[in-house]
Amino acid sequence: MPLEIERKFLVRGEGWRDQGEGIPYRQGYLSTVPDRTVRVRLVRDKGYLTIKGVSVGAARAEYEYEIPAVEAGEMLDNLCERPLIEKTRYRVEHQGLIWEVDEFDGDNAGLIIAEVELDAEDQAIILPDWVGNEVTDDPRYYNANLITDPFTSWSRESNH
Amino acid sequence: MPLEIERKFLVRGEGWRDQGEGIPYRQGYLSTVPDRTVRVRLVRDKGYLTIKGVSVGAARAEYEYEIPAVEAGEMLDNLCERPLIEKTRYRVEHQGLIWEVDEFDGDNAGLIIAEVELDAEDQAIILPDWVGNEVTDDPRYYNANLITDPFTSWSRESNH
Predict the structure, then answer these.
(1) Residue B44 DSSP symbol
(2) Residue B79: strand pairing partners
(3) For residue B141, what is the enclosing H or E element?
(4) Which residue, among A53, A144, A38, has the nearest Cα to B51 in the 3D structure?
(5) Inter-chain touch B61–A80, beta carbons under 8 Å
(6) Is ipTM beyond 0.90?
(7) d(CA B136, CA B142)
(8) Using an 8 Å Cβ cutoff, are A120 and A5 in contact?
(9) Per-residue DSSP letter, A84
(10) 0.90 cut: is pTM over it?
(11) What is the pLDDT of residues A33-42, one digit of tens each?
């Protein structure tokens, strides 16, 4: 079974910004049930369908299939839960690892998250200085939950 | 957008049975929400992922992608809602149209449904004599609903 192992952090400051252009991501969910999320994603001219199981620590079963971009667009427009997730993704290299920095828009504007994919859960990583608190285990930051409970609806109440 | 147009009937008698061997289907759902069902299906050595929108009359948006059979099997074993749907499908030719006759097993044992796929909603069809009441618009017979409310749980209370 393909497993995804990743850690997620909040981002502070702008130190990550000057490493290249961001790519717009448009994505939505056909299922936001944590046991079986089904995501439709459109990145430039490519569409993807991604199925993920429940997270166990930082690991999670993940199946991803490329699909025609036109069909991904139709599913986003007509079938997916509302709101959609719109974000810009930046790839930032740091100490031999690639970090994906997602700057959210729309109902999640103001939220910036950095993710790093690992080969093993206990892999040692050197954190960039623009990385803040780890939120790997915080369900509020799952993209699927950012639809039902967008960042702007709770970010003013909590500290981070 | 790809549209699926099909009509569904209950089956009476055995007149459809001698037209060839049935093929076992194993399928489950990642989403049973009527607005966006997501089905995983394993047929012999082929896996499929199918997304359907809400039905408007006999028509419904449908997207189907072939996926590796091993991954379909893993999703059926580990991710899909319970119970799975197990059925044997027979293809029966009648008056120039192909009918798919599904004989259900497990929690839906006793249920036999015949489906015919059409090019247009108003297409004239000649019904075989082993076809009974039409159930196209009856949500109880949607495969997704046969998981949450299997046939054996309600078939004794109603007439058909």
Answers:
(1) T
(2) none
(3) none
(4) A38
(5) no
(6) no
(7) 9
(8) yes
(9) P
(10) no
(11) 989 999 999 9
